[in-house]
Write a sequence for this structure.
């Protein structure tokens, strides 16, 4: 009986050792995956900047697309597209008056290329009483897609 208990104890200890090793491998894989994603996607995305943003209403010649936004790629990777949001604020205020909308700029930007921009329509605002000429616009980059 003592041999059986001893054998079961050794078997249980071996099972615990294997389970611990597997848990360690899974943890290492998760950490590695997170770090890989962070250093290959998140860090370069932070290097894509809004190089110039004309905040005055009716800066572009086409009245349908009055806002000029210029993005510059300061990363080491080719940018395939940039998703962003336009936000609108009364000067000196912190409440975003623009309705949520995500926009995509699909100009391909190679590392070191000059800044490329386009004219965009104004976002829909929370109230029809708000005049586009009375607000300041800001751009918030939500994601960047890079070439593999």
């Amino acid at each position: 009986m003592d041999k059986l208990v001893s054998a079961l104890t050794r078997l249980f200890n071996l099972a615990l050792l294997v389970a611990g090793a597997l848990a360690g491998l899974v943890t290492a894989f998760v950490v590695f995956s997170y770090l890989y994603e962070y250093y290959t996607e998140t860090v370069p995305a932070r290097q894509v900047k809004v190089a110039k943003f004309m905040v005055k209403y009716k800066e572009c010649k086409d009245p349908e697309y009055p806002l000029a936004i210029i993005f510059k790629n300061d990363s080491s990777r080719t940018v395939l597209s940039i998703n962003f949001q336009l936000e609108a604020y009364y000067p000196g205020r912190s409440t975003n008056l623009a309705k949520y909308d995500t926009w995509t700029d699909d100009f391909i930007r190679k590392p070191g290329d000059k800044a490329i921009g386009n004219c965009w329509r104004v976002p829909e605002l929370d109230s029809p009483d708000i005049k586009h000429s009375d607000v300041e616009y800001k751009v918030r980059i939500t994601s960047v897609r890079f070439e593999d």
In short: DSSP finds one helix and six strands in the chain. The chain has a mean pLDDT of 78.
